[in-house]
Amino acid sequence: MSALTQASSTQPQKFMLKVMDDAMSSSDGGSLEPGDFAVFDRERAPRPGKNVLLSDRTGFVCIRRYVEAGPGHWLAEAT
């Protein structure tokens, strides 16, 4: 999966997506529930513990939590 940070002339810098499933919901608060809106800003670098928008090789797009796994390595985890 790759973080969707590259902008083009046809893509806005900031945009909002509606959460469609419960993959990022949790009982400890701070989660995304179905029907919530997530705001993304292409100018902001990913930060550990924050949500990122990802696309896999097939084009499937999802929201996951950014986790640093070591120098130059990161993980995308669902809650």
Total number of helical segments?
A: 0
Fraction in helix: under 10%
Compute the separation of the termini in Å.
17 Å
User: Biggest sheet: strands, sense, closure?
Assistant: 4 strands, antiparallel
Task: Quickly give the structural class.
Answer: mainly beta
What does the model show?
With 79 residues, the chain is mainly β. The chain is 0% helix and 41% strand. It has no helices and six strands. The protein has strands at residues 2-3, 14-18, 37-41, 51-55, 61-70, 73-77. The chain has a four-stranded antiparallel beta sheet, with no helix packed on it. It has a two-stranded antiparallel ribbon with strand order 2-3. Strand 5 and strand 6 form a beta hairpin. Mean pLDDT is 82; it is low at 1-5.
Which properties best describe this structure?
mainly beta, 79 residues, two-stranded antiparallel ribbon, disordered N terminus, globular
Short description:
This protein has 79 residues and is mainly β.
Please give the structural blueprint:
Blueprint lengths: L1 E2 L10 E5 L18 E5 L9 E5 L5 E10 L2 E5 L2
Antiparallel strand pairs: 1-4, 2-3, 4-5, 5-6
